[in-house]
């Protein structure tokens, strides 16, 4: 059994991600909620936040964390 998120525009269903099956399947379609105008989100893409998050200058990832001092 697979769950696939899709958008129905009144004529056809548009999957929001690739469907991982090649054979014919019996399906059940459930309408969850109407989409607000201009609220359709694009499909999630891997790496979409690449370059958007920066670490603080001078941060040392290998430096011990003071909060864990009693456990070390």
Q: What is the element layout, followed by pairings?
A:
Layout: E1 6-8, E2 13-15
Question: Could you walk me through the main structural features you see in this protein, from its secondary elements to its overall organization?
Answer:
The chain is largely without helices or strands and 72 residues long. It has one domain. Helices cover 0% and strands 8% of the residues. It has strands at 6-8, 13-15. It has a two-stranded antiparallel sheet with strand order 1-2. The N and C termini lie far apart (46 Å).
Task: Describe the oligomeric state of these chains in a short phrase.
Answer: single chain
Helix content: under 10%
Gyration radius (Cα, Å) is 22 Å
Strand count, sense and barrel status of the largest sheet are: 2 strands, antiparallel
What is the number of independent domains?
A: 1
Structural class: little secondary structure
Count of helical stretches: 0
What's the N-to-C terminus distance?
46 Å
List the secondary-structure elements in sequence, H or E.
EE
Low-confidence region ranges? none
E-strand count: 2
Inertia-based shape: elongated
Enumerate the strands of the largest sheet in spatial order, edge to edge or round the barrel: 1-2
Tell me the β content.
5-15%
Mean pLDDT: 79
Describe this structure in a few short sentences.
The protein contains no helices and two strands.
List keywords for this structure.
elongated, 72 residues, little secondary structure
